[in-house]
Amino acid sequence: QDLDFDGLGGAAVPIQPARFSDLLAYSTDMGQSLRGKPLRAGDVWFLRSDSAAEKVQVALYVNGLAIAHNGKEVRACFSPFTLVRNCKFQDSATCSQLMSLKIFKIFFFVKNLCYFFGVSADDEGLAEKERQQWVADVARAVHLVTQSLFPPFSISCEPICAAAVTARRLMAGYVLYHSGDDVATILYGELSPHTRGSDLARLAFYENEQCQRLAMEIWLSVASNCFEKVGVSCTCFCINGHDFSARTMAERKLWLRAISNMKVKLQNAA
Length: 270
Fold this sequence. Notes:
By secondary structure, the chain is of the alpha+beta class. 18% of the residues lie in helices and 38% in strands.
């Protein structure tokens, strides 16, 4: 049964635009301080190219990592827009030393900055096990950083009476949006279907779950480009060139499935 919005307080109030400078946002500056004591530390190979590697000391913290070499240290703080995954060289010309390494990468993709590390051991099985431990621990740290930025909420499919604009809501919930250099902004996203005669669906992003101040919109068509970022336990996805992070992998899957279903409806003019 459709909700009756007539006569409800605030229902007829026009949606006000929200300035990004007024929204809840967090710094994703990689130079922020690392917190607490290292969760793990060890020697790994740092790959400078496909033919050169140096042994470095890496310490993993709850919110980033420190890389030390020859008395110098580089620190990199994680953001929600960080992914980690296994990888390997495909080029047969790569030197035999690097081919023997079990390699993983940490990719700060909104900065287009990628660190490649390699693990070695006398036993290949032990090297693979250590790589998997590094990857799992980094992924867990990134996930904790991501979850720490979200307010408590549940994905909603129900409209709210105080905002008539939500009457056709399909799903809604908070996401993190890469809104610029070193900034992750909390937005409340809402997916709505296309209207009769239209070939565009609407993704609206509000200041919060009250849906009173609109921050931005993305219009979805059959040609819209929507995909997930590939990484271990990664919650990031991209919509028409906009980078987002969901709170969990399950919520990312839900957003992308809902958008995919909407694109099918648009394609079939359903």
